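ok so heres the complex, three chains, lmk if somethin looks off
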Amino acid sequence: MPELPEVETIVRGLNEKVLGRTFIDIWTDSKKIVKKPESFEQFKKEIKGKTILKIWRRGKNILFDLSGNKVLLIHQKLTGHLLHGTWSMKHRTWQPKERGPLEEKINTYIHLLFTLDNGKMVALSDLRKFGKAELWETEELKKELSSLGPEPLDRDFDFEEFKRVLLKTRGKIKKILMDQKVIAGIGNIYSDEILWQAKVNPLRQIKTLNKKELKKIYKAIKEVLKKAVELRGTSTSDYRDIEGKKGFFQKQRKVYRREGEKCSRCGAIIKKIKLAGRSARFCPKCQKV
DNA sequence: TGCAGTGTTGCTTC
DNA sequence: CGAAGCAACACTGC
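and the predicted structre for the whole thing:
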């Protein structure tokens, strides 16, 4: 569900709430969500008593640096929500900042619940159960994460680095932008928005892009992602932050889930097509093939 | 009613 | 090798 800006918002929120806290208990109703170590019991045993030193992000992965050289990795995939608050297990209820039908549902889909030493909790709610939690040794995790592409908002992700990673690949630009091994953190929403801003058609083959177009895509990556982080992510559907609050980027998205509407730049009708098994939205007039 | 679609990833198949 | 298809799972909307 969440891409880089949403995950960044969650990480910032968690850093404000749970830094220095110690895990005292873990509950699940769905042991399969824990992928590493293999048994949930082992996972629980190893995390209990560990203190949270720092929370950070690599691509769309949320990482809790723990005492004892361990790292807890959480990936929310399509429908995960990582939340902070207090729940009564008897009623499985949560008191989020906003109330509504989604919040009620989020409560029912809580499958992993960490209790902290101040009585607060961190919960992973996930309708489709694609999300995962893993416990790694710090050194092992470093190797695991090294297969990801560069962080697009890092200062050293400059135009040269962008060209270097992009021109190694072949295929359609939209698919490549979403490839986590090429650049980390971009998914369906932001690849659509980036390509609209750069005026590049999602079907364009990498090898046909000229320098001017590459430059525009590079610039759009930085600008769109930065803006989306500022606006705390996109909630066109069910994305929420750790307190249950919506983001604001949906108000200024240009193409994502806007098929049939007029392009704000040229007035043509936004089109939706199938690309690499996903839907892609773009303006057929200002993003010509 | 039934089936395509949904923000992800990784494995299998060709 | 790359590209495509699909599975993991559950719900919504046409």
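quick notes: The longest strand of chain A covers residues 52-58. thats all i got rn
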